[in-house]
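Model: You mentioned two targets. I'll fold them one after the other.
Researcher: Yes, keep them separate.
Model: Target one:
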Amino acid sequence: MKKLMLLFAFGVFAAGLTQAQTVVTTDHEYLGGFGIRGGASLYNFGGSDVSENDYTNRVGFHAGIYTMLFATDRFAIEPGIYYSVKGTQNDDAANSRAIFNYVEVPVLFRFYPSNGINIFAGPQISFLANSKYEGDFFGSTVSFDGDNVKETDLGLVFGLGYNLPKGFNVQGSYDYGMTPIFKNSDADAYNRGFKVSLGYTF
């Protein structure tokens, strides 16, 4: 199932590359096509079983590629593939932390209400690449595999972006995970966090 979903994602992305275009309206040019994007992430666990006193946000990163497909002069569909570092931090004596690395496949729907500004939202499926837990003890870092983490994570993405000159773009987004993180557990805990990204459309 995981391989089929990845093949589907690559198929959608490849089809998008063949349809890439630039849309020009009476007041603005919207650049469509292939692009790269990356930036900082701020993730934590969310859910009813997560106490704010137990966990703090952990800084990570994300990077990947996308393609912009304009359906109209104000509406675009953007599939993408990203590598993303998620997890959480615990401010205990060992500075313990969870590090979860995913391959994300979002499909974003962008609306351009005015020049350069866009709002977006869409579904996202994430495939676990690897996971581990770490802690610092007596000057050394101890880690072990996070084999209790589910291999897929479904969620929603929404945010605000702005197209800069020369093909550059910036955006801020929030990932709202909807699949519980852990296998064989009733814990109501999810991957949730913010991203700040810089992109370039060729």
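Model: Target two:
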Amino acid sequence: MLNLPENKKIVLFDGVCNLCDNAVQFIIKHDKKDVFRFASLQSEIGQEIVKHIGIDISKIDSIILYEPGVAYYYKSEAALNIAKYLGGTLTVLSVFRVIPVGFANVVYDYIAKNRYRWYGKKESCMIPTPELKSKFI
């Protein structure tokens, strides 16, 4: 059984991707209601979660939003759901829900496929600062 924080949504991300790292930093900065916790897909807990929910990450190159006991989302649906929970002006992004998921995922996949070339890649996953350590599982 997974030991996850209660009442938190888990964001699984590529821990060596600079774009993903910047996205995590952005989410943390705008997570005023303390909704999210984070784990890299490369971490032991990240691997346990994807196995638990039945996602083959060798076939899905995506950020994953996992709401324990409720649902999981990936690609554009994950991004839009994260924006929804951040609130404020970011809820404006919900207008993109009118775009068919298939088309939105084509755009998402194009960015995901090129992210290392455009934004770079780290040698290893980020180590959170002591101030941010509580945000990571």
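Researcher: Noted. Anything on target two?
Model: Strands lie at 9-13, 36-40, 64-67, 71-74.
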